[in-house]
TrEMBL record:
<feature type="compositionally biased region" description="Basic and acidic residues">
    <location>
        <begin position="159"/>
        <end position="170"/>
    </location>
</feature>
<feature type="region of interest" description="Disordered">
    <location>
        <begin position="140"/>
        <end position="170"/>
    </location>
</feature>
<feature type="domain" description="Flavin reductase like">
    <location>
        <begin position="12"/>
        <end position="165"/>
    </location>
</feature>
<dbReference type="InterPro" id="IPR050268">
    <property type="entry name" value="NADH-dep_flavin_reductase"/>
</dbReference>
<keyword id="KW-0560">Oxidoreductase</keyword>
<dbReference type="InterPro" id="IPR002563">
    <property type="entry name" value="Flavin_Rdtase-like_dom"/>
</dbReference>
<dbReference type="InterPro" id="IPR012349">
    <property type="entry name" value="Split_barrel_FMN-bd"/>
</dbReference>
<protein>
    <submittedName>
        <fullName>Flavin reductase family protein</fullName>
    </submittedName>
</protein>
<dbReference type="Pfam" id="PF01613">
    <property type="entry name" value="Flavin_Reduct"/>
</dbReference>
Amino acid sequence: MPDPDQQPASDLGGFAEAVDGTMYVVTAAAGGRRAGCLVGFASQCSIEPPRFVVWLSTANHTYDVARAARHLTVHVLGRDQRALAELFGGLTGDDVDKFARTAWRPGPDGCPVLSDVRVWFTGRVEQVVEAGGDHVGFVLSPAGPGAGPAEPPGPLRFGDVRDVDAGHPA
């Protein structure tokens, strides 16, 4: 007999809530366009060679720019950076130039690097993974030095931003 307290395998909501994953801002540049979005699905996916995967919503403006980009920059938001999460998660690049509202500098191929984020890296897009859902994975290999503090702040977590309304409906 099934345990009534056990959630069904098809419902990842409780699992995802318990994990309370790190929040990232992923930026891209291609064809004279810049884009960036708040991302909650990302992970290291290989040690040798080093690889990291970020999953972008296909409904998102950043997805379209990322498909044409050779590099993406992944920024780890600190707990004190909710305003950046709201900017990159609550507004869509279809309507707003998010980069006019925050400090940044160009990285490889013009990929924006957010000046106020202490932990980040830029990766070369090695592979695009279409898993049949509403997000597509971009497998990245390190493309030069990133940045990380000697004592990193605690990361901003999903639970810290769950009330931010998506700038682009899913």
